[in-house]
Design brief:
single chain, mainly alpha, globular
Length: about 425
C-alpha cells in the first residue's frame, strides 16, 4: 500500500513538473528529505525516484521560457569550486571505487542544489521549498516526539534505513536543523491555528531529538536552543516553549538516559569517544601528509594501519570537520569552513538591511533562523559524520536566493507607485507663485 501511495504521488505530479519546473524541485526535495519510499516494504524502496524526478525537471527547464540563471555570489562560486575540488580528491583517493561511488551521490545532491538556485526565482517559490523541507523532516520530529512521550523515552528515535539520517545521532542533528525553519514559518504565519501547530511541531521535534539518545545531538540542541532564543522576535514565547520542552523531557526520560548523557563528562573512559578521537587524529595525519586528502570513504582499516595513533582501533570519524579534513585535505577543509563563514556573514548582511523594513522583515527572520540552524549543524556535527548532508548546502542556496530577492524587491517599484502611474495620478511638485 505504501509503495502504491508513493507511485501515485510521484507519477501523478510528473505532468505538473513538465509545466512547472519548481514543482520538480519540491518533489525531489520531498523524496530526498522525507524518503517515503524507505518507509515502504516492496519494490518502491529501491526504485530510482530521485533520478526520474530530476530527468523530468531537466526536461521541463529545457522547454520553459523562464530565464534560467545561477545567481553567482561569493557563496555559490565557492560552492562550485568545492565541488570541483571534490572531483580532484576523488581522482587521487585511497580507495577509488568507493570514492567515486560516494562522489557521484554527493554530486547529484549538489547538482540539484544549483538547479534549485536556477528554478526557485521568487519569494513564493522559496517559501514553498521551505514548507516542503519542514513537512518532510518535521514528520519525523512529530512522530518521534509522540513516540518518545508514549514510550517514556526508553527506545531511541531513528530515521529510515538507507538514508542520510538513518541513525539516532544523525536524526538528532537533522531535527536540530529543522526546528529553526519551523520557527521561521511560524513567524510568517498569520493564522492562529497554524502558529499553534507549528509551535507544537517545534516542541515535539525537540523532544524527538532528545529521544534519539544522542549525546552529540544533546549538545547541538542546547546550542541551537540558546541561539533560537537570542534570535527570536518574541523572546518570552520562545523561552516558554523551551522551558516547557525541558520540563516534559525531564519528566519522561528514564534514568538510563541521564546516565548516558552524563558520560559526556567522562569521555576518557568511554570506548566510543576514544575511538572517535583516534579517527580524528587519523584524519589530521592523512590531511597533513596528502594535499588532496584520502578521498571519500577513506576511513578503512588500511588507512588506520598507516595513519592512526592506535592502528587497531578502527572507528567511524563521526565529525563533519574531521570527515571533510580527512577526505578533502586541508584545502578542502578550508573551503568548507570558509563557505560556512561566508554564509553566516551574508545572513548578518541580510538581517542588517531588512530588520527595520516591514516589507522585507521576512528576509531578516529567515536569515536569523538559518544562522540558528547552522549553529545546530556546527555543534551537533562536531560529533556526527554528515559533512555532505544536503540540508546544509540547501541552506547556503536559500541564503543566496534570499540575498538576491531582497535586492530585487528593493529595485522594483512599489504597487502604490505602479498603480499611480497606470492611472496618471502621479505626485507633482507645485511651484508657488510670487
Amino acid at each position: 500500500m505504501r509503495d502504491l501511495f508513493v507511485a501515485i504521488v510521484v507519477f501523478g505530479l510528473l505532468p505538473m513538473v513538465l509545466r512547472r519546473p519548481q514543482v520538480g524541485i519540491y518533489l525531489w526535495s520531498w523524496i530526498g528529505y522525507h524518503n517515503p519510499h524507505r518507509l515502504a516494504f516492496g519494490w518502491a524502496r529501491d526504485f530510482p525516484w530521485a533520478m526520474i524526478i530530476a530527468l523530468v525537471t531537466f526536461t521541463s527547464m529545457l522547454f520553459s521560457k523562464e530565464p534560467k540563471r545561477i545567481p553567482w555570489t561569493r557563496e555559490s562560486v565557492l560552492l562550485l569550486i568545492f565541488v570541483l575540488w571534490m572531483g580532484i580528491t576523488t581522482y587521487f583517493a585511497f580507495f577509488p571505487e568507493l570514492a567515486w561511488e560516494g562522489f557521484v551521490k554527493v554530486f547529484k545532491v549538489l547538482l540539484m542544489t544549483f538547479v534549485t538556485l536556477m528554478v526557485i526565482n521568487n519569494r513564493e517559490r522559496l517559501n514553498g521549498l521551505i514548507w516542503v523541507i519542514c513537512i518532510s523532516l518535521g514528520f519525523y520530529g512529530i512522530k518521534g516526539g509522540i513516540f518518545t512521550i508514549s514510550k517514556g523515552g526508553v527506545h531511541r528515535v531513528q530515521g529510515p534505513d538507507g538514508t542520510f539520517f538513518g541513525g539516532n545521532n544523525e536524526m538528532a542533528l537533522v531535527l536540530a536543523m529543522t526546528i529553526p525553519l519551523l520557527a521561521y514559518l511560524r513567524l510568517q504565519e498569520k493564522r492562529r491555528w497554524m502558529q499553534l501547530g507549528l509551535g507544537a511541531a517545534m516542541m515535539l521535534s525537540g523532544i524527538a531529538a532528545i529521544g534519539s539518545q544522542s549525546r552529540g545531538g544533546l549538545v547541538g540542541l542546547a546550542a541551537m536552543g540558546v541561539f533560537l532564543w537570542l534570535k527570536s522576535r518574541n523572546k518570552f514565547m520562545t523561552a516558554l516553549m523551551l522551558v516547557s520542552s525541558v520540563l516534559i523531557i525531564g519528566s519522561i526520560m528514564p534514568q538510563a538516559w541521564f546516565d548516558r548523557m552524563n558520560t559526556i563528562k567522562t569521555y576518557e573512559q568511554d570506548q566510543s569517544s576514544l575511538g572517535r578521537i583516534n579517527a580524528w587524529w587519523t584524519a589530521f595525519h592523512v590531511a597533513r601528509s596528502n594535499i588532496t586528502g584520502g578521498g571519500m570513504d577513506m576511513f578503512r582499516p588500511a588507512t588506520f594501519a598507516q595513519y592512526a595513533p592506535e592502528p587497531s582501533r578502527v572507528h567511524d570519524v563521526h565529525s563533519i570537520y574531521f570527515e571533510i579534513m580527512g577526505e578533502q585535505g586541508l584545502i578542502g577543509f578550508a573551503m568548507f569552513m570558509t563557505l560556512g563563514l561566508m554564509t553566516w556573514m551574508r545572513c548578518n548582511q541580510i538581517i542588517r538591511l531588512c530588520k527595520k523594513d516591514p516589507g522585507r522583515k521576512w528576509a531578516a527572520d529567515l536569515a536569523a533562523m538559518i544562522q540558528v540552524s547552522m549553529v545546530g549543524y556546527a555543534t551537533a556535527g562536531a560529533f556526527l559524520g554528515l559533512g555532505y548532508f544536503d540540508l546544509y548546502y540547501h541552506l547556503i542556496a536559500i541564503t543566496v536566493m534570499t540575498w538576491v530577492f531582497i535586492h530585487q524587491e528593493q529595485s522594483e517599484p512599489s504597487p502604490v507607485k505602479v498603480a499611480a502611474r497606470r492611472t496618471g495620478f502621479t505626485r507633482r511638485k507645485t511651484i508657488k507663485q510670487p
